[in-house]
Fold this sequence. Notes:
The chain is an alpha+beta fold and 498 residues long. The protein is 34% helix and 13% strand.
Amino acid sequence: MQVDNHLPQITSAPRLLTKWQNETMSKDAANSDSKTAAQADPGANRSRTPTSQQFLDYMGSGWADNNATAIAASPVTEFTPDRRAKVAAAFAGEVIVIEAGPAATRSNDTEYRYRPHSAFAHLTGWGANTVPDSVLVIDARESETKSILFLRETAGKDSSEFFANSAIGEFWVGQRPSLGEVSQLLAIETRSLTKYDEFVEALGENFITLAHPALAEFVSELRLVKDQYEIAEMRKAVDGSIKGFEEVAANLGKAKAHPRGERIVETAFFTEARANGNDLGYETIAAAGEHACTLHWIINNGPVRDGDLLLLDAGVEMESLYTADVTRTIPINGKFSPLQREIYEAVLEAADAVFAMAKPGVLFKEMHATAMRVIAEKTHGWGFLPGSVEDSLNPENQHHRRWMVHGTGHHLGLDVHDCAQARREMSMDAELKPGMIFTIEPGLYFHKDDLLVPAEFRGIGVRIEDDVLVTETGVENLTGALPRKVDELEAWLAKHAG
């Protein structure tokens, strides 16, 4: 992509105040008549550690030396310099600032598990262990690009931060790595976050951030084609997800015995995600029975009953933050009914049609059109459409989409819906290229109150979702080890079900 070097300037990136600074500001504000003490400092009504010098001296003494050991560079460092070089080439003459972002507050002083911005993770290679508020700077003003990673380095035990700051103190959240350790791990120059404000002040307003649309687009589009490190991480995420599905199968008996069996399904998968990955890539959809017709059912509070289907849409996220996204629809009692089988095989036929035509040079949107033709033919064969297949495929009609309102796939990687800021001409309207990873996920959903279908169809929802890598000649089904065909899926259930 060619980018105009004469980009409009972003006035300034927000100064990154530490939580310690924010707490101090809150304490100062407590003296204001316009705020109560509790409003100014949410922790004012709690027990406080002593602040005397005597206590500080005592807390800072008697600790063993924590000598840092040599850290091997991460395998990702073979690829991150090239990623940053592409950004620098596109925005030559600029200083590019990519913020990891702050921790997100859940309530009061309780925070969500931290996850850095995907662009930051991609360009640094730093994943689940990223220190909040870190900042990557790519200086492309000279012929030789310079990259600097600013981070909040670990504080000494002689600092009050160590024991008194519940947001970032080592006593509370664990030790942060040193500048040297991060530099070794990521093969990049590191500086203390305390130096960041001084650095950007020297730049004045001459830098750009992800608030700049062209930069947000470019770093998103940079992830459309995965490098070998990314592909390897995606394979790991898929393998972990398949193990998660096996755990679900092993816990089906327990799920059926519980009034909120969907929660048993959800937590079985989550156990695998946390044990052998970093987290879930997204909230698990554990939709049994009629809940399978709700596309993003994440409440997961319903029963799991024999005779119904279970639609499980789940993915394991690795420490690198790459995630899989897999869906299988399985018969809870181990066997599809004749009608369930018919609907399932209709969806499978749509998916297989996409697999058959997907290859380099095919437009991404053509895969959706291929799946939609099959869905239109199937719903017409059941007598659900008001006219012919061709009438329904008319862009103005699309009657068949009453039973499949979503798209057939999306890019996948650091985000479950990866590359979301990419321009349409670079994604939906673009040709498939080797190295792209995306999902193929047709479905059919017949809601319980849908009067346009026979009563026996109502409450049945089916989706099959696979993660696909584009090769030089076609596509590889990364999730192919998880059965898709009816007979194979039933045999898999018989092997793993508990």
